Amino acid sequence: MGKLDGKTIIITGGAKGQGAAEVKLATALGAQVVVTDILEEEGKKIADETGNVYLNLDVTSPEQWSNVAEFTLNEFGRIDGLINNAGIDQRNHGGVVTTPVDVFRSVIEVNQVGTFLGMNAVAPAMISQKAGSIVNISSVAGMRGLRAVAYVASKWAVRGMTKTAAAELGSSNVRVNSIHPGAIETDMLFDLGEDSINWLVSKVPMQRSGTPDEVGETAMFLLSDEASYISGAEIVVDGALITR
Ligand SMILES: NC(=O)c1ccc[n+]([C@@H]2O[C@H](COP(=O)([O-])OP(=O)(O)OC[C@H]3O[C@@H](n4cnc5c(N)ncnc54)[C@H](O)[C@@H]3O)[C@@H](O)[C@H]2O)c1
């Protein structure tokens, strides 16, 4: 018996990094996963390896979100969970003076609007089932200021929308929580380059970066019935990075 037996879970950005780890963990715990991403080849590979289905989903598209929700309901009859995991970094790591508005908007569009659209697409089914769990992947950047104004804005928004959705959907037994990863070993971290990674890890009290599975296990708990009274919470997975 796995703690996600019989549950159908949609995961965005499931082709690689934390999303791919979550696909594998959820499958091992008994869930049927709908793997989604914009990276079709990698996404199909993970889906094939785990015996799941893959659908193309650009999280900024309301039409594609409707298709994913409709497909999931037609195929599996319910939507028990959603991990809004897809996200992009702010490439130029600019502040308020140096961030071009098109960069700002593109980050907001994926990280913030994408997360909103995900909740918007699955909530009606969860409300009618009177059950569901939504896990929104924010960041430690959603809890403090950092030199990446668009990324920070988008991740604070994810945290705020999580609280709002938890309050709105609570009476329907739909739980909504956010996870705030620190330095996690995926391309998003590796793209920063060795010097920045070493500097960042030196700030972590636990003196190491985290693995995608360490974030994934937290998401599995929040999706499961073990977390049946946890909603509107924010869980930091950062080796104590933001304690100082
Ligand atoms: N790695 C870290 O250190 C770190 C820290 C804090 C938060 N996060 C957050 O964790 C989440 C997962 O990132 P990751 O670390 O696995 O990085 P990653 O770059 O390996 O994976 C991101 C995934 O999102 C997908 N994606 C990007 N734009 C998309 C779009 N428009 N529609 C659908 N999918 C899209 C990518 O194709 C990719 O599969 C993101 O929300 C990220 O902001 C990461």
List keywords for this structure.
244 residues, alpha/beta, seven-stranded parallel beta sheet, 46% helix, globular, binds nicotinamide-adenine-dinucleotide
Write the layout of secondary structure elements.
Layout: E1 8-11, H1 17-28, E2 32-37, H2 40-50, E3 53-56, H3 62-76, E4 81-84, H4 101-129, E5 132-137, H5 149-169, E6 174-181, H6 187-190, H7 194-202, H8 212-223, E7 234-237
Parallel strand pairs: 1-2, 1-4, 2-3, 4-5, 5-6, 6-7
The structure holds nicotinamide-adenine-dinucleotide.
The name of the CATH superfamily reads NAD(P)-binding Rossmann-like Domain
Radius of gyration: 17 Å
Strand content: 5-15%
Q: Which regions have little confidence, pLDDT < 50, spanning 5+ residues?
A: none
Average pLDDT level: 98
| Series of H and E elements | EHEHEHEHEHEHHHE
| Alpha carbon gap, first and last residue | 40 Å
Structural class: alpha/beta
Q: Please, how many domains?
A: 1
- The number of E-state strands comes to 7
> Which CATH-level-2 architecture?
3-Layer(aba) Sandwich
Q: Identify the quaternary structure here.
A: single chain
The CATH class is identified as Alpha Beta
Please give the order of strands in the largest beta sheet. 3-2-1-4-5-6-7
- Helix content class: 40-55%
